[in-house]
Design brief:
This protein has helices spanning 23-45, 49-66, 75-86, 97-111, 113-147. By secondary structure, the protein is mostly helical.
Amino acid sequence: MARRPAPAAVRPPRRTSPPRLTGLGGGLFCGATMFALACLDHLLFGGSATVYGVLFLPVCVLTALWVRPGDLVTAPVVVPIAFAFGLPPITDEGGGGFGGHLMGLVTALALQAGWLYGGTLAAVLVVTVRRVRLMARRRAAQRRDRAHGVPPGRQAR
């Protein structure tokens, strides 16, 4: 007698995989999130650079966690760009005009360099750990394939 599958209500829910972003998608995610958080910071806290810096750290870690394995090198590159992209809503315009906005942005980057370096370092650490784990998995698969007599370049099924 054939066994029937359990009804959908009885089956345990499938685990969803974490998001996988391309390099461009990681940059867009990080940049858009930082800009939105800067706008929210401006509305709620009057443009506090410390709040912005603290919020930057988890965005860096999430970006490094969610980027595809093939695009790991892009995460530490896009997070500083996203930091700068989100700064205009919280910077002081100085004297107004384009020069004032540019001077406010450069000043904010100089004064908040610690947060920028910290977030970039967090992304580098996450990417490094992911890369080491990926290389270890590949080496283990190659050893397993060699033990089963699979020629190089072919995968065991």
